[in-house]
Please model this.
Amino acid sequence: GQNIDQPTEMTATEGAIVQINCTYQTSGFNGLFWYQQHAGEAPTFLSYNVLDGLEEKGRFSSFLSRSKGYSYLLLKELQMKDSASYLCAVVDSNYQLIWGAGTKLIIKP
Amino acid sequence: EAQVTQNPRYLITVTGKKLTVTCSQNMNHEYMSWYRQDPGLGLRQIYYSMNVEVTDKGDVPEGYKVSRKEKRNFPLILESPSPNQTSLYFCASSLSDTPNTGELFFGEGSRLTVL
Model:
């Protein structure tokens, strides 16, 4: 079966750096998305990786290793507003989107 | 403003009473999709549509119907709601003509409770 694994919950301190990991086993691969979802709100797009390597976008970076079935989202200079769930989703060989359950990130002052 | 609009945002209903959740996007997107989100589970796709009059089942289509008569609208119909359809529902759209390779724009969500 197809599977996306992310930690359920993480805690970090304001101003620090946090890395949220995502591992996947899917039938084929056509890209990996990260979305941010604040409680009670809609998911919003953060990044899309289809090739190996690191993509940086401001305070957020996303890394992909296709050979390892692994990605991470790196958040720097954490702010209280970064408290949210972070959703990893993989596009499989049939172009279906497989979603992880999400990682709830709690930021403490 | 580019957006996906869902209505109603909140609804409490009873078992068996037909209901429709509307979804409209103003971005001229080809692709539209419905998801449900339940605690501890990833988003699960209910139905999707690649274009007008073209709809396909997602992972959990049982108990739901959709239609795509116009490009901008993609309503979700629950003919006979049951308590296991209590959930948070999201409509989403995308510009990409290859499924799921472009950013998804989500509506604000519709929280449905079936008693």
Notes: The radius of gyration of chain A is 13 Å.
